[in-house]
Design a protein that fits this description.
The structure holds 2 protein chains of 2 kinds. Chain A is built from 17 helices and 19 strands. Chain A is α/β, with parallel strands linked by helices. Chain B is an alpha/beta fold. The longest helix of chain B has 16 residues, at 63-78. Classes of the chains: A alpha/beta, B alpha/beta.
């Protein structure tokens, strides 16, 4: 449905941007298509006959030139370009990225600067060292325990992005290029602006490295692009797929066996908090839930509170206050009627549930201890804190924190066990390290599926070397070889 | 329960219907709404994914009340000028699916005195039975009752099947959770081409499991072109368009989230906040604009519908 005129007036003018950057030397596209991506109008080439072959062939050639480049040099260039990209993100650029991601400019800056901490020279160095005992293995054979070993990325990588978090695709491009695999990136709908800016900056700073980074946005799942996607999946050596189960299953069904798949499905973030031992934890909790407007795979949706319902309710009071503060500094971007409607439905049905059973408590801007009713329409939908039994939990998003009182750590594990297939980050607050070790809680969390167990304050921004969905981010891209001699 | 809900919403004793806090339709998926010993329990189709997977449940005190509430309006909009008609239903037979409020209403219609024969040509599992439709449409004019989705299934399955002159169609519902969505203009054009029923004889019914009254956008046989149509409820229903952010009432012509106050919902809840967009008209009707556009934006965070599947919840 088209957004009615007066509601459309709430949304900023959709910026128009080019959602593509092809390798140099390719013919200029003959025709373009324009699609809506986030709140932006994105123009991209209409793939013609032979286009996929030409693109991948060009990237493959760029890869051959990259092979001779020392990985340390590549790393330094990538970090420098990424650093400049963030430093030079002026108001105009920020608004473009924000509009594309449908985040407020303040939230966009917070998110991009936070993610960019994993693009710094130190961060990339940590990443390389964490994954390769001798990073020169990416440049040639190196001796390791009586054998020579070598690691190399695939000849070409295709990145299938999905979603609306800016920076995810740049991270994926950096990872591929670090292992010297040229990459064609299809960003998520809300990640086009930043990705194209990065690719352009890289091309300008280092034409050889930049020739190995192409960008082309098209709407994922569009049957009109099925042939194009099939051709790419046949031609590239590896596809990195982010997205919902349906996206991953669709790529799996169409990729030939010779194309390696690296999959990152949608994930759920939770937190375990002992409020008695973590007096400031509500502030970290609000941040962990609010950043990315709760769209990140690391975003926290569910808080398991050690203690009884009264203790949890007091923590919810504090969490609501912290949400209100964040709402002032990191507001929502103007949202569409669908989001607003979903939030009204959620709050209304929970309020009725509260009236029916008394098992649900609700905190919203309207009934916050410090009334924080939306100042204007643009501030909606605000935030929601729900204190409820675990049976009620649904990761609705839109800055909704579900708080479930839990008697002890064993209770937390029982609650989390059914979530194992989708569990990712577990933020901890008030759980001392010795308690983690002595009680075997970290081990138990790992067993129930958690792949990232970190202080609650660290949840929003993983380090470059994080074990992304339980895999080494460079390790899952490379192929190893060993050479032994008598 | 509703009194407590009103109190929570800051309204202890509403002085007029506008002051009664509306209950969101999604609440029917969470809370048992209606009498303890209902005569019927209607359930939503389950194609709506918010909140994922759970089906709304409307406990209805009296089917007689439902029939009375729906009958006046369907007779007024579907039966004018009809002496005898065959009903062909692409809505489930209420005997097979008693939990369908739409099917139950189709059952009411099929028992009207003008109806000579009723053919049930839709199975929830197998979809439209084209042969039943073919056999049923010979002879006197037909009143075809269909969801838009089933109608598209029928149109896709046949090249041409001219309905007898004077036939009319009531279509309802959207394409919630379905992949084959088409706009109404296209749908009506295809109906004209394939079934030979002109736009003037096709009307849209707006209704939902959660309310017992329905709105129609025209009288079959005299329906104006689509852009000129306005939905009308019977006089015991009031409709408002509410600002999607603040839920403040909007003046006629301004699109917002639709809320309906239906007195026929006695025994359950009268004031409903829907997920539908529309604009009221100055003479008591409303223009239906479809579902509120766009879901909550997602990134790589697990959405509720996937979560429900993962957690294996009903």
């Amino acid at each position: 449905m088209t957004e009615p005129a007066h509601l459309g007036a709430r949304l900023p003018d959709a910026p128009r941007l080019d959602g593509w950057l092809w390798p140099p030397g390719l013919p200029v596209p003959e025709s373009f298509v324009e699609t809506r991506a986030g709140h932006a109008q994105v123009r991209g080439p209409a793939p013609g006959p032979g286009c996929a072959e030409a693109l991948v062939s060009s990237l493959r050639a760029a890869g051959r030139r990259l092979a001779d480049r020392p990985v340390r040099q590549i790393s330094a260039t990538l970090a420098a370009v990424a650093g400049d990209l963030v430093r030079q993100l002026d108001d105009h650029a920020l608004e473009e990225v924000a509009a594309n991601a449908a985040l407020s400019p303040a939230m966009t800056r917070e998110v991009v600067e936070g993610i960019a901490e994993s693009w710094t020279p130190d961060a990339l160095d940590r990443l390389l060292r964490a994954e390769f005992p001798d990073v020169r293995a990416l440049d040639g054979f190196v001796l390791e325990d009586g054998r020579a070993v070598r690691a190399a990325g695939p000849g070409t990588t295709l990145h299938f992005g999905s979603g609306t978090v800016p920076g995810v695709t740049v991270t994926s491009m950096i990872r591929a290029l670090l292992v010297k695999s040229p990459i064609l990136a299809k960003p998520g709908a809300g990640d086009v602006a930043l990705t194209v800016r990065f690719a352009r900056a890289l091309r300008a700073a280092d034409p050889v490295l930049g020739a190995g980074a192409a960008v082309h946005y098209w709407p994922g799942g569009d049957p009109a692009h099925d042939d194009w996607e099939r051709a790419l999946l046949r031609l590239v050596d590896q596809a990195v797929v982010y997205g919902a189960d349906a996206t991953i299953e669709s790529v799996r069904a169409r990729a030939p066996a010779s194309t390696r798949l690296v999959e990152h499905a949608l994930r759920l973030g939770v937190a375990v908090v002992d409020p008695a031992r973590a007096p400031g934890s509500a502030a970290h909790g609000a941040r962990a839930a609010a950043l990315y407007d709760q769209r990140g795979c690391v975003s926290t949706h569910l808080f398991l509170l050690l203690g009884d319902r009264d203790q949890a309710a007091r923590w919810c009071d504090e969490l609501a206050d912290r949400f209100a503060s964040l709402h002032r500094t990191l507001p929502f971007a103007p949202v569409g009627t669908g989001t607003l409607s979903a939030v009204h439905q959620l709050r209304g049905r929970l309020a009725l549930k509260k009236a029916a059973s008394g098992t649900v408590e609700l905190w919203t801007p309207r009934d916050s201890p410090t009334p924080e009713a939306p100042r204007t329409d643009l501030d909606a939908p605000g935030w929601t804190v729900v204190l409820a039994p675990i049976e009620e939990f649904e990761p609705i998003g839109a800055r909704t924190a579900w708080v479930v009182p839990t008697p002890d750590l064993n209770g937390c594990l029982e609650t989390l066990a059914p979530l194992a297939p989708v569990l990712q980050s577990v933020g901890l607050a008030g759980i001392p390290e010795e308690r983690l070790d002595e009680s075997g809680f970290a081990e138990a969390l790992f067993t129930v599926g958690a792949t990232r167990i970190v202080p609650l304050s660290d949840v929003p921004f993983p380090g470059a070397e994080w074990l992304h969905d339980g895999a080494r981010p460079l390790g899952e891209l490379v192929r190893w070889a060993e050479a032994r001699r008598r | 329960m509703l009194r407590r809900y009103w109190e929570q919403s800051g309204c202890r004793s509403p002085a007029c219907w506008e002051e009664v806090p509306p209950v969101p339709t999604a609440a029917f998926k969470d809370v048992s709404i209606g009498p303890d010993a209902p005569e019927a329990v209607f359930r939503t189709s389950g194609t709506t994914i918010k909140p994922a997977g759970r089906r709304g449940e409307h406990r209805v005190a009296s089917l007689a009340l439902y029939r009375t509430a729906s009958r006046r309006n369907y007779r007024r909009h579907l039966f004018p000028g009809v002496a005898s008609v065959r009903v062909v239903s692409l809505v489930p037979n209420p005997t097979a699916l008693p939990e369908s409020s739409l099917g139950t209403m189709a059952g009411f219609i099929s028992r009207e005195p003008e109806v000579s024969v009723a053919a049930w040509a839709f199975d929830p599992e197998r979809g439209v039975d084209v042969e039943v439709v073919r056999r049923a449409v010979a002879g006197e004019p037909v009143l075809l009752l269909a969801t838009a989705f089933a109608l598209v299934q029928l149109l896709d399955a046949i090249e041409e099947l001219r309905l007898p002159t004077g036939s009319r169609i009531m279509e309802t519902g959207g394409f919630k959770g379905r992949t084959a969505a088409v706009d109404r203009e296209t749908l009506y054009q295809r109906i004209g081409t394939v079934l030979g029923v002109p736009e003037s004889h096709v009307v849209n019914e707006y209704g939902m499991t959660e309310m017992l009254s329905q709105a129609y956008d025209a009288v079959a046989g005299a329906a104006p072109p689509l852009p000129a149509r306005v939905h009308r409820f019977p006089p015991w229903v009031r409709t408002r368009a509410l600002d999607p952010a603040s839920l403040a009432p909007l003046p006629p012509g301004r699109p917002g989230l639709l809320s309906h106050f239906d007195l026929a919902n006695a025994g359950s809840v009268c004031h409903l906040l829907t997920e539908d967009m529309g604009a009221t008209t100055s003479n008591g009707g409303f223009r239906f604009l479809g579902r509120a556009a766009g879901a909550v934006l997602r990134g790589c965070s697990l959405p509720a519908e996937s979560f429900i599947r993962t957690a294996g919840r009903p």
